[in-house]
């Protein structure tokens, strides 16, 4: 048996999402997910540590969309780096991913264990962004604030992007959220 | 047996923190926590749903420190409401709570299950703040961004407040963090 099945990861994620949506997260088992994907439990566990991980994929790939953009941004002030990070993150969410993302989020929002795992992943992204900003010369506290703000803006843009009937591209929404964020801080 | 033991909540939290720090979160049992506090398991479960909850206390009381300040703030622009919320939150962290908060945070940071629960609590605070800001007339998206930013600033200020050797009051640090946040957005 080969150690790698083409598309196994994607098939497992799709099967898991279907099962979580129909049977509920708690009742769905890894064996059922693997069977629905036409794969074995062994294969499942080569890709994911446990059931809780299956919807999250490889955080390295997701985080890299933001971090690579930070590394490539020529300007080194915090606001420009935040904007670059969000634009990079937008690249992870092309329009053809929108329906999947919306279905996936509905399952996460309905499941406490998955909500917690998602928050932990985003917390990890914030920590990586803070390090990336600091590496670009942003002072430590500013780097942490910028990173937390960046993740907050990402979550806001993402929620709008997957809303019913929304058609704007992720990048367009992200730009509007950044503008709104700046306006917010300019007042008061 | 009375349904309420004086200080039971505090005693259970203190006992739990001691046990988590010495035996580790996973190994400590509710029975041991209750025994160390001189109380019964029944009493534990009157106060906390499970072991994972014991360090978090009543989120209503914590959140109210922020939310009451928002309701009482005369100015209704988002930046002023954020500042008011943080000043209110600072009231929850007098200097005499600092040592406890630092010990508690060290245990949380060392335990994935507690990190996740903490993130969920803070996410709940952000949602409540967004509603409170919107109730004061802040537009929806701005309210969400302001709430997420507020929680990010809170976390940043809190981390500085419990750092080794730190002596500044929480409110002082929070003011500095707000100023840094504004400066961050003003550049770029």
List key phrases describing it.
transcription (chains A, B); Arc Repressor Mutant, subunit A; 188 residues; DNA-binding transcription factor activity (chains A, B); DNA-binding (chains A, B); elongated; 2 domains; 70% helix; Tetracycline Repressor, domain 2; homodimer; mainly alpha
Order of helical and strand elements of chain A = HHHHHHHHH
Low-confidence stretches of chain A: none
How would you classify the helix and strand content of chain A by structural class? mainly alpha
Beta strand count of chain A: 0
How helical, in percent, are the residues of chain A? over 70%
Instruction: Assign the CATH class of the largest domain in chain A.
Output: Mainly Alpha
Chain pair forming the biggest interface? A-B, 38 and 38 residues
Oligomer: homodimer
Task: Give the integer mean of the pLDDT values of chain A.
Answer: 91
Organism (chains A, B): Agrococcus jejuensis
Keywords (chains A, B): DNA-binding, Transcription, Transcription regulation
DNA-binding region (chains A, B): 29-48
Domain HTH tetR-type (chains A, B): 6-66
